[in-house]
């Protein structure tokens, strides 16, 4: 897929269905690969940390999750790009995996959420092959624990591993696991609770107009206030700076 550099990361370009087809094609091969689902938070984390930027830019695909990234591509480069968000990708890929008889594995989140995900998928996608699910402890894994998880995923024959560890932990984990896990890994962040209805998504009008972050902030202000205040401010500043520079130059 073609890419365009935005602030700190290379965003993959294409229609929403192009991403679905590419991910399914990758997963059929069972080659070790990983996909980052990029939002403003990831973009700014990569801007602040060049090593993390290398991790994101080494991904096989980087989807434009956040509406602000889509708008950035439009305002800077006149690129009309579809939004490819984690909460949309997850059900789409589960449906496609079910259709193509591909095995899926869930990694991350709490055991309670994972149990809900498995129950939900069993009912919603009766033909889906669930290869396994692991809720790792919220600490650094020992080498033995890590090797056991790798072996479990490889032995399961999983084509797709959905990784829900949060940014930047899940991206660092996928980068480390490339070449070790024979599957396509996707960092889906908080998509599991949204899939099963534990957390509600913003109304469509908010999603379409770039205010989904505000809806999430209202739901969880203590955890997200500082992140959104810092990352959104940084992003607006950096994007405005580039737009002004480009206008002066051209």
TrEMBL record:
A molecular function GO annotation: hexosyltransferase activity
Name this polypeptide is given: N-acetylglucosaminyldiphosphoundecaprenol N-acetyl-beta-D-mannosaminyltransferase
InterPro entries xrefs: WecG_TagA_CpsF (IPR004629)
Record bears the keyword Signal: no
Coiled-coil segments: none
Keywords: Glycosyltransferase, Transferase
Domain of life (superkingdom): Bacteria
KW Transferase (keyword) present: yes
């Amino acid at each position: 897929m073609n890419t365009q550099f935005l602030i700190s990361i290379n965003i993959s370009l294409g229609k929403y269905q192009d991403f679905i087809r590419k991910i399914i094609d990758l997963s059929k091969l069972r080659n070790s690969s990983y996909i980052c689902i990029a939002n403003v938070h990831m973009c700014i984390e990569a801007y602040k940390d060049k090593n993390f930027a290398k991790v994101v830019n080494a991904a096989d695909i980087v989807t434009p999750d956040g509406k602000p990234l889509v708008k950035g591509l439009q305002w800077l480069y006149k690129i009309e790009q579809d939004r490819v968000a984690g909460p949309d990708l997850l059900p789409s890929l589960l449906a496609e995996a079910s259709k193509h008889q591909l095995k899926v594995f869930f990694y991350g989140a709490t055991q309670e959420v994972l149990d809900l995900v498995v129950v939900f998928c069993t009912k919603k996608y009766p033909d889906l092959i669930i290869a396994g699910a692991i809720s790792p402890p919220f600490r650094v894994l020992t080498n033995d624990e890590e090797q056991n998880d790798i072996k479990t995923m490889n032995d399961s024959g999983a084509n797709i591993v959905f990784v829900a560890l949060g940014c930047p932990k899940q991206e660092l984990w996928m980068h480390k696991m490339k070449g070790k896990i024979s599957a396509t890994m996707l960092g889906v962040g908080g998509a599991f609770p949204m899939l099963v209805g534990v957390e509600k998504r913003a109304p469509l009008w908010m999603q379409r107009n770039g205010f989904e972050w505000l809806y999430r902030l209202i739901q969880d202000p203590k955890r997200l206030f500082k992140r959104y205040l810092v990352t959104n401010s940084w992003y607006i500043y950096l994007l405005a700076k580039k737009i002004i520079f480009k206008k002066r130059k051209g």
